[in-house]
Design goal:
Layout lengths: L40 H17 L7 H8 L14 H7 L13 H20 L11 H24 L18 H18 L18 H19 L10 H14 L13 H10 L17 E5 L22 E2 L10 E2 L7 H5 L6 H6 E3 L19 E3 L13 H5 L12 E5 H10 L5 H11 L10 H11 L6 H7 L5 H7 L1 E7 L2 E7 L2 H6 L7 H6 L11
Parallel strand pairs: 2-3
Antiparallel strand pairs: 1-6, 4-5, 7-8
């Protein structure tokens, strides 16, 4: 399709001496291009690195999927600045009338997803050109990781827009959207291949260089997640006839038994800001905290970020995390850095959360309860007195951006906190939901870590409530709402809201009518520019 044509692969130019070469030699010795690039295992590995780079790119433009899914959930409002446009409230209320001009809100996402897919497809179609020699065992592993990433991109896209053009080879063809079952078939095939061929090293044996790479365990966890969403949202018994419930359960049980993962003992240690908060609360310097780090035993798969992003094309930083930060103000005592104030937390979420559950204070930044002297209330849209805490910028004891102090060019692009895509807690709760004989043990293991009282039985509602608390503000809750029942009645009832918030310091009644979620089927709008570029081949989703 036309929007993909601008994508260029990252092939490097290599200058070689031509001394002593026959002048009739027709081999291109000056430049590497897609025609002659894929010749060695090392070049294939470099191409795979480009695919992982796209994993960082997909959330650096438009509205990052983790941010958007929190906005659309029942736990957050859109927030941002009082004078900002209403694109985020439009997402939150599923109502185009809130901001009619925001017809391209997700265009950056769309382009970056197809950039990632292009890179994966380019590598996969050229793997047979590589002269593997004694490194032939690398081929299925590289293919497995590239296919995992392609599946990851398409799964995000099919949940956001449902029908999207399906490309499994590099192409500039202007093709129509595919049916969701066709997309899910590719996702399932890719993940099943990754289960069989990706690294099977348990957590304890993964070398530092392997962190961030897709493994068998990551593929099994993702397959279970895809299975649960597809069967719930569409009301089906299996995943496009390719994965049964029993198989999905087998995947997560395999992770539990053989993957070598476990829960981090203290929930707050999963999150840098939460760990700093606990240190300050206990009278310690914020740098004297017990943060478990980005490669802890609970991380089954994560997107790796670092602070080395610049304005010359290096996009390595977690740029979406800044959206969640305390708007335009740092708070030194707890080390909370400045950001843009998106995802203001629905006040009832904090107020109705059992104070003895350690996940509450690790997940929510409570302005009054933490005695934060917040001076920017009048600059916040939909202010509630609560912001998220898990993915926010940090500051040092002088109020300076931690990312910049580490060497980042700018706090807006240099955030380095990894995004935990799949945690072991999710594996345990998916196994419980899929009917494990150990369901109650798994569920209470998660609750015990949070200092919550054990439950005596496992039901669908008990599991969904546990997931709501455990994965608050991690980009998971919204898709749990959508998959609860294929009528979307549950999701519509949960997002419906009426209450008072502040915008620019003035009170107004915030109302969310859940019927708009049902009208749009919980899907996002396809960027209008892409529909125009396609000449009308692409069709907008209902309700937008």
């Amino acid at each position: 399709m036309k929007s993909i044509r601008y994508i260029l692969f990252f092939l490097t130019a290599i200058v070689l001496s031509s001394c002593g070469k026959d002048f009739l030699d027709t081999e291109d010795l000056t430049n590497k291009n897609e025609g002659n690039y894929y010749s060695t295992p090392e070049e294939a590995q470099t191409a795979l690195t480009g695919c992982y780079d796209a994993l960082q790119l997909i959330y650096d433009d438009g509205v990052a999927t983790p941010v958007a899914s929190d906005v659309m959930s029942d736990m957050c409002f859109g927030g941002t600045g009082a004078a900002d446009g209403d694109g985020y409230p439009m997402m939150d209320e599923f109502n185009m009338n809130v901001s009619p001009g925001d017809v391209n809100l997700f265009e950056g996402n769309w382009k970056q997803f197809y950039k990632g897919i292009f890179r994966c497809n380019s590598l996969l179609i050229n793997l047979d050109k590589v002269e593997w020699g004694d490194k032939a065992d690398q081929k299925p592993i590289i293919e497995a990781e590239a296919r995992f990433l392609r599946a990851y991109f398409y799964f995000d896209m099919v949940r956001m827009w449902e029908k999207v053009p399906l490309l499994t080879e590099p192409s500039a063809e202007n093709i129509p959207q595919s049916e969701p079952d066709d997309i899910y078939s590719v996702v399932a095939e890719d993940l099943l291949f990754a289960v069989e061929n990706a690294s099977k090293s348990p957590y304890s044996q993964i070398a530092a260089s392997g962190y961030g790479h897709a493994t068998k365990w990551a593929a099994e966890g993702m397959l279970a997640r895809v299975f649960l969403f597809y069967t719930g949202y569409y009301g089906k018994d299996d995943l496009v006839g390719m994965v049964t419930k029993e198989q999905a359960l087998g995947f997560v049980e395999d992770i539990i038994t053989n993957g070598g993962f476990d829960l981090v003992p203290n929930y707050a240690d999963l999150w840098p800001a939460a760990a700093q908060y606990e240190a300050a609360k206990n009278g310690k310097p914020i740098y004297d905290n017990t943060y478990a780090g980005e490669t802890n035993q609970e991380v089954v798969f994560s997107i790796k970020y670092t602070y080395t992003s610049d304005y010359n094309g290096n996009t390595d930083g977690n740029q979406w995390l800044v959206m969640n930060g305390l708007r335009k103000q740092s708070w030194i005592p707890n080390g909370y850095g400045s950001g843009w104030g998106a995802n203001t937390v629905v006040p009832e979420v904090y107020q109705n959360w059992d104070a003895s559950d350690t996940r509450r204070d690790a997940s929510i930044m409570a302005i009054s309860e933490e005695s934060i002297n917040y001076e920017q209330i009048n600059d916040v849209k939909e202010y509630t007195g609560y912001f998220t805490k898990k993915y926010i910028p940090l500051c040092d004891t002088a109020g300076n951006s931690t990312a910049v102090e580490l060497g980042g060019v700018n706090f807006m692009i240099g955030q380095y906190q990894d995004y935990f895509v799949i945690r072991f807690a999710d594996v345990l709760l998916m196994a419980a939901e899929l009917g494990s004989a150990n369901a109650l043990t798994y569920l209470n293991k998660v609750r015990e870590r949070a200092k919550a009282e054990p439950v005596g039985g496992v039901t669908k509602d008990v599991i969904f409530e546990e997931r709501r608390l455990e994965f608050a503000f991690e980009g998971i809750r919204y898709y749990d709402l959508l998959r609860y029942d294929n009528t979307l009645q549950y999701a519509a009832s949960k997002v419906s809201y009426s209450g008072t918030v502040l915008t620019g310091g003035a009170q107004y009644t915030k109302t969310i009518d859940g019927s708009y979620l049902k009208l749009t089927r919980g899907l996002c709008q396809i960027p209008n520019n892409q529909i125009t570029l396609s000449g009308g081949v692409l069709v907008q989703n209902t309700g937008w």
